[in-house]
Design a protein that fits this description.
heterodimer; A: mainly alpha; elongated; B: mainly alpha; two-stranded antiparallel sheet; 70% helix
């Protein structure tokens, strides 16, 4: 039982590594944590199109936020 | 981190928001709400769920970026990923990564900006209309699923191809627009553009474009160079020349049937034309006129739907045809609106951004190619369907689907499925409930409300030949008519209140257009089966009801037994009883007396064991009396039919039965008469031996009588065995095998027709019948002649005996036996009687001569008759060639026919 869980854990870790590598290749700008969140969302059947739109929008928002902060500073 | 535990999407989303913006949960509340909204509103993906395709796209993307090594590395990683079974939605993750990917050699900020803008706009746009997602799956006409490998643009229905078109047509252009926006260098600008186009297209349109690019016509490859060619003209607008952008705007209006600034409707030529005053180069003028054709086609279709959709008399089928046209137009409008918004975006960007991706006439020409074909088809359809309605309309649409072009077929098939839906609904209501709700006379079963229930089966319902859709065969239509008719017959005539569900257990009247489409694609299979099932069940039920509750078969047998004289003992006894009554003049007959006699006959014979229901219907009927008729001429048996069985035994049928009965009754009477004659001969033979002077006459009588007996016997044999029994056997077999009431009715009609014609009652054998009647008359005459003969002979005999007796008595008394006076008187009387004998002889001779000549004529007619059984009858009647020896014509014709028959062999 424990070994099975262990094997599963290993598999998950390996998968995440591979995905991170692909992400890096494609220059998506996702770090490990956001990637894992995204993967989990995708696994729950979220529309990847929408998800990518959200991420892009979030980035844009944070960027503009930073710009405005810079201006105020 | 490593465990993929199931948290709710909202929690995950929130942490994602925090993570990306780098703020706390409270601060990102706004962004989080936005994220939830976007995700929630775009639940179903608009793209192919195919991992292979996504990975191919990623590779292509990497290759476009000249990163071949990375592409190889990716394939490796992907393979590794495939070996793991942790992820269920690999394509989804890959797709996400792909859409987030950025070209490292390009400033990312703007791309991010616009990417966000449009990536968000794209799916939302896609979901604002129900057709994008629902149609391709629900309308699985040709192919079950839009699985990978099948090209979506070819396989799915007509609509979906348009839907895909609107997807892959204009929507990618905004993305391409921004790609080229800040051109670093010409090479750098075109390359990412190409790559973006390449991936934007396959994702939205169909997988096949990635595998086999030439199949998708709207590929954006070709327009790029052409756009470049046009551009110089665009940039350097000559003084009076109209810019292409303005033309594009105009063309977009014309697409909707609205006159533009330069392109206007020419009322005379009935087409859109570029204003001749406008200065334009020829190629642009040509292109815009070619595009303007769409406007004309659109107007045509639009005019038809506008005119018809308010016309209530156009009927349900027509309405659904209009609706389907409307649907097509709606798709077309959607495409136009996308084009318009594209134009809008261009305007907002200002003229400066008009690059390869902007709208040009040529690009429009390519993009609008498919819609044009579709509109053309629709316009042709509209032309073809002008003035048709109901099933005729469906036939017209169906005829259009046979061009062989799969795209056109899909389009027409879709329209047809909508158009035929009301027809199929009629059909199901009709075959399962027997109800006809056809206000506009569109269905192919017509009902005549003026027909009463007694003629319901025969006259009430009929087929409207013109309204039978061409995809329904005549045989099916006939069955459909029969099914509903049977149900109505059960309800209205048999008063059978069984719910229709019990008759046909597999009833499923509620059908959607989808089912209609399925049925259309499988007309030979499921549809035929459905109709056959309903047909068998309903017909079987109807026959069961008729046999069980209304004793149809028993009535049929009763007809044979009573009206066709099948019940021998009963008929004989009835004749015995009726003889004294019928010998009287017809005017002195009374129906009630005869009815009483009939009942006596029934009670005395085997008929009494028959069903009371049948005996109740048996009755006497007196035909119209003409002067000089005896009872024999007007008497007839009758059989009352009413209710459901009257459908089989119609008024005409009963008329036929009556005629046949009269013929048979007459023939029977001849037999009866001859029996009487024979009886008289046998009884009197001994008595009259004492009168040797009569022997010659009596011999003549015997000869003639036996001649007649032979004739009548052969006739009776013919009628019984060759006419009645044969036909009856045929009828009975057919009735036993009958599947529906129509079969029984037809078999019965055939039976009656056969009997009528074989009994010489039809028009063709009128001369034969006349001869036969004459023969019958001779028999009656002979009977009376012989009766008279016997009467006078017996009278004479009695007188002689009386004389002898008296003589003996006197001698006993001791007187003279006879006086001379008495003897003289006696001798005188005897002499007188003997004088009458030659008169009798000559009378008999004349009778014989007449009779024989009539029989000879009859035989001649029989010989020339076309009916084989009648020719055989003639052989039997003249088996020893007695008549042939006397009649030269008979000899000739006999020889001739024999010769002919030999030569035939």
């Amino acid at each position: 039982m424990a070994s099975a869980a262990n094997a599963n854990l290993n598999a998950v870790r390996e998968t995440m590594d591979v995905l991170l590598e692909i992400s890096r290749l494609l220059n998506t700008g996702l770090d490990m944590e956001s990637l894992s969140i995204c993967v989990r969302l995708c696994e729950q059947g979220i529309n990847p199109e929408a998800l990518s739109a959200v991420i892009k929008e979030l980035r844009k928002a944070s960027e503009s936020l930073k710009v405005s902060e810079n201006c105020t500073n | 981190m490593a465990s993929l535990d199931q948290k709710s999407p909202n929690v995950l989303l929130q942490s994602l928001c925090c993570r990306i913006t780098g703020k706390s949960e409270a601060e990102v509340a706004h962004q989080f709400q936005y994220a939830v909204r976007v995700i929630g509103s775009n639940y179903a993906p608009t793209i192919e769920r195919d991992e292979f395709l996504v990975s191919e796209k990623i590779k292509k993307e990497l290759l476009r970026q000249r990163r071949e090594a990375d592409a190889a590395l990716f394939s490796e990683l992907h393979r590794k990923l495939q070996t793991q079974s942790v992820l269920k939605h690999r394509w989804s993750v890959l797709y996400l990564l792909l859409s987030l990917s950025e070209d490292p050699r390009k400033p990312s900020s703007r791309v991010g900006n616009y990417g966000a803008l449009f990536a968000q706009a794209l799916p939302r746009d896609a979901h604002s209309t129900p057709f994008y997602c629902t149609r391709p799956q629900s309308l699985a006409l040709g192919y079950g699923e839009r699985s990978a490998g099948l090209s979506g643009s070819v396989g799915t229905s007509g609509i979906s191809s348009l839907g895909v078109y609107t997807l892959n047509g204009p929507t990618p252009t905004p993305q391409t627009l921004l790609a080229g926006q800040p051109p670093q260098s010409a090479a750098a600008a075109t390359q990412p553009l190409g790559s973006r186009l390449a991936w934007a297209l396959p994702i939205t349109s169909s997988p096949s474009s990635a595998l086999a690019p030439p199949t998708t016509r709207p590929s954006l490859g070709p327009p790029v160079p052409s756009a470049r060619l046009v551009r110089p003209r665009r940039d350097g607008d000559a003084a009076g020349e109209v810019s292409e952008a303005a033309l594009v705007r105009d063309v977009l209006y014309v697409f909707q049937g609205i006159d533009g600034k330069f392109i206007k409707m020419n009322a005379q030529e009935n087409c859109y034309k570029v204003d001749s005053k406008v200065v334009l180069c020829k190629s642009l003028r040509d292109t815009s006129s070619r595009l303007a054709e769409l406007g004309w086609l659109h107007n045509k279709v639009r005019k038809y739907t506008d005119a018809r959709s308010l016309d209530r008399a156009f009927g349900l089928v027509g309405q659904s045809f209009c609706a389907s046209l409307h649907q097509e137009l709606k798709e077309y409008y959607r495409l136009l609106s996308v084009l318009h918004s594209q134009l809008q975006v261009e305007d907002e960007q200002g003229v400066s951004v008009c690059t390869e991706s902007s709208l040009t006439l040529r690009r429009l020409l390519v993009w609008m190619y498919d819609p044009k074909v579709r509109l053309k088809t629709l316009a042709a359809l509209v032309d073809f369907c002008q003035g048709r309605k109901g099933g005729e309309l469906a036939s017209a649409v169906h005829a259009y689907g046979k061009t062989g072009d799969p795209q056109m077929r899909a389009l027409v098939q879709h329209i047809l499925s909508l158009v035929s839906n009301p027809i199929l609904n009629f059909l199901y209501r009709w075959i399962y409930d027997g109800e006809l709700e056809d206000t506009y006379h569109e269905f192919f079963v017509a009902s005549d409300p003026n027909v009463k229930t007694d003629r319901l089966w025969h006259d009430k319902y009929s087929l409207r030949k013109s309204m039978i859709p061409s995809f329904i065969t005549m045989d099916q239509a006939r069955k459909v008519l029969l099914i509903g008719k049977s149900i109505n017959f059960l309800h209205q005539v048999c008063h059978d209140r069984t719910p229709p569900g019990k008759i046909t257990p597999a009833s499923k009247p509620a059908d959607t257009p989808k089912d209609a489409a399925e049925l259309l694609s499988d007309l030979e299979g499921a549809f035929q089966e459905k109709i056959d099932d309903a047909y068998f069940d309903t017909s079987k039920y109807l026959l069961d009801v008729l046999n069980r509750n209304y004793l149809l078969l028993e009535h049929l047998q009763a007809m044979r037994r009573y009206l066709l004289l099948g019940q021998g003992d009963f008929i004989r006894h009835l004749m015995d009883l009726l003889k004294p009554e019928l010998a009287r003049p017809a005017t002195t007959l009374y129906q009630h007396n005869l009815t009483g006699i009939l009942e006596t006959a029934v009670r005395a014979t085997n008929a009494q064991f028959d069903n009371a229901e049948i005996l109740k219907r048996l009755d006497v009927r007196l035909l119209e009396v003409s002067p000089g008729d005896t009872g024999w001429d007007v008497f007839s048996l009758d059989y009352h039919v009413d209710g459901p069985i009257a459908t089989v035994f119609t008024r005409e049928c009963m008329g036929h039965y009556l005629r046949v009965f009269n013929f048979l009754w007459r023939a029977k009477r001849m037999e009866y008469t001859l029996t009487d004659i024979w009886k008289g001969q046998m009884c009197n033979a001994k008595l009259l031996k004492t009168m040797p002077e009569l022997s010659g006459v009596l011999h003549q009588c015997h000869i003639l009588a036996s001649e007649m007996v032979h004739f009548i016997h052969q006739m009776q044999y013919y009628i019984t065995f060759e006419v009645l029994e044969c036909s009856w056997d045929e009828l009975w077999n057919k009735v036993q095998q009958a599947q529906d009431l129509d079969h029984i009715i037809a078999a019965h009609d055939v039976f009656l027709d056969t009997i009528i014609s074989r009994c010489l009652l039809d028009n063709n054998s009128r001369s034969l019948l006349n001869q036969l009647r004459a023969i019958f008359d001779q028999i009656i005459e002979f009977q009376s002649a012989q009766d008279a003969l016997y009467r006078s002979a017996l009278e004479e005999l009695a007188l002689r005996l009386q004389f002898e007796e008296r003589k003996e008595k006197r001698e006993e008394e001791g007187q003279w036996g006879v006086t001379a006076e008495q003897t003289a008187e006696e001798n005188r009387r005897i002499q007188e009687f003997q004088d009458t004998i030659p008169k009798m002889r000559s009378q008999l001779r004349i009778l014989t001569h007449f009779y024989q000549s009539i029989v000879q004529q009859f035989l001649v007619l029989l010989m020339t008759s076309s009916d084989e059984s009648l020719r055989f009858l003639s052989f039997r009647l003249d088996f020893n060639e007695h008549y042939r020896a006397r009649e030269p014509r008979l000899r000739a014709s006999l020889g001739a026919t024999r010769g002919r028959r030999l030569s035939n062999i």
